[in-house]
Specification:
It holds the Pfam family SBP_bac_8. InterPro entries: SBP, Sperm_putr-bd. By secondary structure, the protein is α/β, with parallel strands linked by helices. Helices cover about 35% and strands about 15% of the residues. It contains 15 helices and 14 strands. The longest helix is centred in the middle third of the chain and has 14 residues. The chain starts with a helix and ends with a helix.
Length: about 375
Amino acid sequence: MSAHKTAALSALTTALLSICTVQAAEPLSALGTPEGRLDIIAWPGYIERGDTDKAYDWVSQFEQDSGCQVNVKTAATSDEMVSLMAKGGYDLVTASGDASLRLVAGKRVQPINTDLIPNWSKVDERLKNAPWHTVAGQHYGTPYQWGPNVLMYNTNVFKQAPTSWSVLFDAQALADGKDNKGRVQAYDGPIYIADAALYLKAHKPELGIDDPYALNEEQYAAVLALLRQQQPLIHRYWHDVTVQMNDFKNEGVVASSAWPYQVNALQLENQPVASTVPSEGATGWADTTMLHAEAKHPVCAYKWMNWSLESKVQGDVSAWFGSLPAVPAACQGNELLGAEGCKVNGFDNFDKIAFWKTPQAEGGKYVPYSRWTQDYIAIMGGR
């Protein structure tokens, strides 16, 4: 991919994206009759209808009220979401910041009319105009949830929470005296390169890393060296949450990057698991529900976007996933989330999270995402 084309993937720039916006279809001006169906691409655990736990169901009432039958296709990585949206056949996607602007640049999503979403007024001010869904003053979706990528660990091995991501990156004996080789995991998406960059930002300040998604050649080389050093330690590069949970239960894995969702699910099974954000900080995600440019069920999609911003829905999702709501009002009075749920999940840590975004070249100044993708695949393969 050329540097010129890669620049179009930026979350913060540029004239290229502005041009895309001008050429994009105009948002709907009014809602007609619901089409009776809605097809959504979502992260695992993001859209529940009570199949796992009857208390967690924010689909059934929507279907009853709207007449829109919800169908969900789960995706395990942002790259998978981008690929599915390119193929088409879906109305909405819960895109993270490392996918959202790629979808805008690729004209896979359309701008939305927030006037048709009454609950837009409830959205957290920190998210309303976030650069991962706002381009040239137009919004390309409604904020859904946000949170950090946590360090999940086995509490039988770690009597106290690990204080550093080094348990994943550096060969060492863990708290139980056994080596970490073959007992730790890393995420299998290229965006994980930013996790290694964030670690080096703290431990090798001489590299001058400021933004873990904007790496010059020298910084990038150091990050790749760290990831190659890590590779022999890795039991599995995870993306399937069910497989990762099984690895913690049955395969001797004791520490890994993870989402709060896996932590919650394992704790519900009374597994010896907890999570922490180590001293170096964490990468994270702020996800946006985005409308496909060729959505076949746009009225149902708009109704879902509004429904997804209901305070109870936001609180229920946060309780289930271990994430933070895009609607601050959801933090109060939600039985499932509890009085301290938002505080426990890190509502006040917004400014401490390095949110996912697609790396851009900026005229060759930084290494573009196309390189991240190629190099991380090679590293996972031991090259």
